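ingest -> validate -> predict -> emit
validate: passed (alphabet ok, no gaps, 123 aa)
predict: started
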Amino acid sequence: MTNHVDRFHAALTVLAGHGHIKQRLIHAYEDNLVGINEDEMPVAMKQSFTELRSHMHSVVALNGEGPICASVRKMSCDEASECAALVVILFREISRLQDDTQASLPLTHGDEARVPPFLVKSG
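emit:
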């Protein structure tokens, strides 16, 4: 799931950058999210991610234009903003799920304190 968190974070960085919302949305999705399969997403996020994917592939591409560019080009600025907001919501959810998973990992084994492997000094 860490990889997905990183991908959504990278998409947010693009969305927060300069330029028109439609161009930022295209780059954020194409460069970071297009390769994510719905089946790889946590169950709580599948429907929202499928909705985003559906919006981003809603138009049949013509004249060599990709489906994402064609779909976003046909969106109003408000629709593009809604898709961008959905990316933010999905990032928040996947980050929360990752934090919950990491918080539930035990740091002790029996009565002994356990040091995570990355903190062990190699000799």
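The chain has a mean pLDDT of 86.
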